[in-house]
Fold this sequence. Notes:
Blueprint: E1 2-7, E2 12-15, E3 18-21, H1 25-36, E4 41-44, H2 53-56, E5 61-62, H3 72-82, H4 89-97, H5 99-108, E6 123-124, E7 134-135, H6 142-153, E8 157-158, E9 162-169, E10 172-180, E11 183-188, E12 192-194, E13 205-206, H7 215-223, E14 227-228, E15 233-240, E16 247-248, H8 255-258, E17 262-264, H9 284-298, E18 303-306, H10 313-316, H11 318-326, E19 336-345, E20 348-350, E21 362-364, E22 369-370, H12 383-401, E23 412-418, H13 421-431, E24 435-436, H14 438-448, E25 452-454, H15 460-481, E26 490-491, E27 503-509, E28 515-522
Parallel strand pairs: 2-11, 3-4, 3-12, 4-8, 12-21, 13-16, 20-22, 24-26
Antiparallel strand pairs: 1-23, 5-7, 6-7, 9-10, 10-11, 14-20, 14-27, 15-19, 17-18, 18-19, 23-25, 27-28
Helix pairs in contact: 1-6, 1-12, 3-4, 7-15, 13-14, 14-15
Bound molecules: succinic acid.
Amino acid sequence: MSGGWETAPVGWETGADLVVVGGGIAGLTAARTAAARGLRVLTVSKASCTDTATQYAQGGIAVVGPDLDDSIESHVADTCVAGAGLCDEAAVRSIVSGGRAAIASLEAVGASFDRGADGSPARTREGGHSVRRIIHAGGDATGAEVQRTLDAVVPAVHFDTTALRVLTTDGEVAGLLVRGPGGVGVVRCPTVLLATGGLGQLFSCSTNPAGATADGIALALDAGARVADLEFVQFHPTVLFAAGSTGRRPLISEALRGEGARLVDVTGRAFMAAVHPLGDLAPRDVVSRAIAELLHVSGGEHVLLDARGVEGVRDRFPTVTASCLEAGIDPATDLIPVAPAAHYSCGGIVTDTSGRTSVPGLLAAGEAARTGLHGANRLASNSLLEGLVVGERAALVAAERAGRAVDITDVALPTYRRIDRAVLQRTMTADVGVVRDAAGLAEAHRVLAHGVVSEPPVDARAVEDAALTAAAEVIVLAAAHRRESRGCHTRRDFPEREPAQLRSLHIERDLDGNLAIVNDEVMTGAR
Ligand code: SIN
């Protein structure tokens, strides 16, 4: 979104203490916490019904248990190692320390996690974790249980409602412009929380739902907030492969490898042991890169996951089993074809660990935000943890701001600059995927320069396309600037980690609406 303001045809107006944009774990946790404190909360979602990344999450929630072999410091260390030097260690410690209380509060409203024979929470392991610390629900249906719990306790979500613009007065949030079933309207409020999820729809194949279109990134940039670390798009190594398929693809949980599954190439050769000391349980960026490079050399399209040795695989992993069976594959007897696909945006809108952005009153949480927890590569199962902890804290910030007078002086719609979705996905997949180089990034930059500009009103799809285009521009700018390989960002032309680039790139729009790298934040989480 940029430039060319036009007065919006506002048809209705209402007020709230907090507007939450998004219906996943971070947004609904904030909404329920704020409502419990007596705030007037309005939660909007552009979807027609619940369809969030949260509900598809499988592996679980990383949370330190009472066992002596685990500790907050061990979880902090694993997170910082996976984050390849770009984690904010203080933020990591703060969020990881909030895990147990956040889970207890979710259980108090009805969430039920799997238990072992002794009645204590069952824990599994995933890539990059030094111990079994990941709790889960319904075997591999953790996100579905979290979503079910929150849907039941959060006051009604306003579906089919698209956020068009965060309204600010003198640089501070004064409201949100939305379009819902009743047309374009304004919600006057001192606090807006962007919990819009990720950007997986930038790529041809993703584990993300159809709504993962970077909406929060575009809204935040438009409102003057900063984004960072967006070059670090995490590709999950094991997504169910089917020739020619695009869109949302079923995840084959990393927890399968935690329970003994092994990656092999199409000749049956196990290849991860030679790549990393943790073998199949190496951090996710390492595994995705190993597969991408193997496929680059062989010209193949997938590798195989051998889960035949996983005890009771069908019962322990019912979601994975259902997806496989639908594709005619029985994980108990067959090898599963898998390939990397876009999974998670490690970067996002720059916030502190309570969701505060650089714009007073504008908060962000969950995948849309960048707290410094993930650095250059998110550790498995840290995302639901972050959504719970920061979502709850964001509600407390909203409570502090409730009652502030808001004065809306300017209600205007942006114009929308966008690239055709299919072209964008093809370009991002070919040139800005698991492995990048200068020539590919230059090609992506060239394609992105040819956006079409639409004047409002535009349909919801065009709003999404403009958000995807803005996010793609940020990713390409940052990826071209980062001449090194670090975490999820691999440059074939700069294969080494470069100590001088141990910093996060912060990006915002300048007064002309152009993207600019505004500062380099030297990070503290190097391990
Ligand atoms: C998985 O189950 O492999 C995904 C977990 C995550 O992305 O944290």
